[in-house]
Specification:
Blueprint (H helix, E strand, L loop, with lengths): L2 H18 L7 H18 L1 H4 L30 H37 L1 H15 L3 H12 L3 H27 L3 H8 L4 H9 L1 H27 L11 H9 L6 H28 L1 H11 L1
Length: about 300
């Protein structure tokens, strides 16, 4: 095979990869975010295989520094920090994705109904959303989680209750701006029912902004869930959790690694979702979409 044919094969492979990889993620932030999230998704899927030791086993000396006995050291009970950090990804990441999916689904449906039908339906749903917005998110989540009791399930319910109004308000604004469009009015003149007009004509124009908002919301959900676990209202010990490990590290000032490594995990996951969310927002925003397309051309 000649040098020219090798170069052509490489260029063909690059073009195929660019064709398959979404244009909105071909920015430096999008690529970095994708790499980070793919890494953590693989870690969460294969956590039992990647963890070198049992995360609950108290078989090592207490509070040993990284590198002395294990790669990331041990905690106050002699458990391997690396194994606990890896196993925490299997809890935190799926829970955050579930919260965002459910809150985006519920909030989008309620917001679409409020924006399309208006009148007392709009007033009822939006006043309920305003009631949730009246309290700081983390404070309200703490109150709900404390009333339900500690546990991952109750933490998910608490975050879901405080998260859906944001999606409802965004969807309502988008639906209200689209319901009087010519193609929607034409569909109603052709005899389309309100539900068909809403979910067939209007919803395609609402999905993209909601997806961007949901992508950015995953990082916020992870932070809120870690905050609840930090306060003892989230995952119940001894189940490993990043927020609970940081809470333990706060009381162990000399053992800096107990809080450092879980904090780095939370930082990287949140950054990955924020990078992808920013890339999608720039690609979908008409003011910046042309610049992104020009840079990826």
């Amino acid at each position: 095979m000649t040098t020219t044919s090798i170069t052509e094969a490489i260029n063909l492979g690059i073009r195929r990869w660019r064709w398959r990889f979404p244009k909105s993620l071909r920015t430096p932030l999008g690529i970095a975010g994708t790499i980070i999230l793919v890494f953590w998704i693989l870690v969460s899927i294969f956590a039992p295989l990647l963890a070198p030791h049992d995360p609950l086993a108290q078989v090592f000396p207490r509070l040993t520094a990284p590198g002395e006995v294990t790669a990331l050291g041990t905690d106050s009970l002699g458990r391997d920090m690396l194994s606990r950090v890896i196993m925490s990804a299997q809890t935190s990441l799926p829970a955050a994705l579930l919260v965002v999916f459910c809150s985006a689904l519920i909030g989008s449906i309620l917001g679409a109904i409020a924006g399309y039908f208006g009148k007392w339906v709009d007033e009822t749903i939006m006043r309920l959303a305003d009631l949730v917005f009246a309290f700081p998110t983390i404070i309200l989540a703490m109150v709900i989680a404390a009333s339900l009791g500690p546990g991952l399930k109750n933490a998910i319910i608490a975050i879901l209750i405080v998260s859906w109004p944001g999606y409802a308000r965004t969807t309502r604004a988008l639906v209200m701006s689209a319901r009087n469009s010519e193609y929607v009015v034409a569909g109603r003149l052709l005899g389309f029912s309100p539900w068909r007009s809403l979910f067939r004509d209007i919803s395609p124009n609402v999905v993209s902004p909601v997806v961007v908002l949901a992508t950015l919301g995953v990082g916020e959900a992870i932070l809120t869930m870690a905050g609840l676990s930090f306060l003892g209202l989230g995952v119940v010990p001894p189940t490993p959790d990043w927020g609970a490990m940081i809470s333990e590290g706060v009381s162990q000032f000399n053992a800096w690694w107990i809080a450092l490594f879980p904090g780095i995990c939370i930082l990287t996951v949140v950054m990955g979702f924020n990078f992808i969310g920013d890339s999608l927002r720039d690609a979908l925003d008409p003011r910046t979409a042309k610049q992104v397309q020009g840079a990826n051309a």
